[in-house]
Amino acid sequence: xxxxxxxxxxxxxxxxxxxxxxxxxxxxxxxxxxxxxxxxxxxxxxxxxxxxxxxxxxxxxxxxxxxxxxxxxxxxxxxxxxxxxxxxxxxxxxxxxxxxxxxxxxxxxxxxxxxxxxxxxxxxxxxxxxxxxxxxxxxxxxxxxxxxxxxxxxxxxxxxxxxxxxxxxxxxxxxxxxxxxxxxxxxxxxxxxxxxxxxxxxxxxxxxxxxxxxxxxxxxxxxxxxxxxxxxxxxxxxxxxxxxxxxxxxxxxxxxxxxxxxxxxxxxxxxxxxxxxxxxxxxxxxxxxxxxxxxxxxxxxxxxxxxxxxxxxxxxxxxxxxxxxxxxxxxxxxxxxxxxxxxx
Length: 344
Description:
Layout: E1 20-22, E2 31-33, E3 48-54, E4 60-65, E5 71-76, E6 83-87, E7 92-98, E8 105-110, E9 116-121, E10 125-130, E11 136-141, E12 147-152, E13 158-163, E14 166-171, E15 176-182, E16 188-193, E17 199-204, E18 208-213, E19 218-224, E20 230-235, E21 241-246, E22 250-255, E23 261-266, E24 272-277, E25 283-288, E26 291-296, E27 302-306, E28 313-318, E29 324-329, E30 333-338
Antiparallel strand pairs: 1-7, 2-3, 3-30, 4-5, 5-6, 6-7, 8-9, 9-10, 10-11, 12-13, 13-14, 14-15, 16-17, 17-18, 18-19, 20-21, 21-22, 22-23, 24-25, 25-26, 26-27, 28-29, 29-30
């Protein structure tokens, strides 16, 4: 459990955006069902496309699964800041939150208890929603630049936001600001919280990855190895390694305790836009202009490449149950792949 943080500064202003909730309608659903099948005979070497989800009018920039793996939430680059919710049992669109933000939805996270959906945007704001009924709860306004990444602690207590003006901490249950972890000079593009909730990883525009102690709010160490913007950081489920991806076309695996570089994965021919780790810790998915690549984290070997999208893949995430992989693209589509563990 994270402990309370030090006394805060001035509370940020909180405003209510104009929102419209559209309930489920068969007439407005835009899912193309691709013969769902999650039988154990499928493996990471042969993932199967389950759904192609259509409805966004621009690049799909962010994706998040509910803790029970039954709902997928997506955020797009549409100027009206649209958030869409998808039923993964049926492949149907459950509804749409229109005017969730004034501009593109950059990042989405769902609290581990499944109660709260948080979204952030290039309109400088963070909005909280009740995931069950999609009702607006609160806006956090404190950043002075684009808010590009969100992360939440495993105990549901702290929401963390990363922006061009640094990192801020927010009390999620009380819905109020906590502290500023890092300010200008830390041009944050991506964030991740460790499985035990005590450590935060950040990646910035200079290619630097930093580890922060969330209890003391102090910098632990910096990893210098990428030569371009860090697009994604992710902790392995055992908390032993940190995996980072960059526009320098590489993926790096770092040992957290020693700070040593364990391995560099190369294979993408352009920017690595996003990465995700299967909850079993065995498989890494990476996304870019050249599709989705699946890697064996034990050996570092490339397993396969998925080429279902017709443009850059911009977002990717595994379901908490480890059986699905969702990808979003510049082609305005979301694809959900069925992935079952390998047989021994």
